[in-house]
Hints:
Blueprint: H1 21-29, H2 33-43, H3 49-60
Helix pairs in contact: 2-3
Amino acid sequence: MTPDASTWRSSEYDHLDTLTASDLAWEWLRRNDAYDADFEAVASGHGDPEPLTEQIRQRWGLRFPCRSTDLAS
Length: 73
């Protein structure tokens, strides 16, 4: 007997249907323990962050085409 798969979808994840590609990528990336460890290494502020930042860009495919601006000024 084949189980009924018509109700497999959980409403808990309905919001995923409205996400952009980058938002969806972030949803999965932020749950990755290895990414979290890399991020914590940079965020800890120990040593020069530039080599770690470049490693994270390369490892996780992150691209930042322009610098963020200070919206408070």
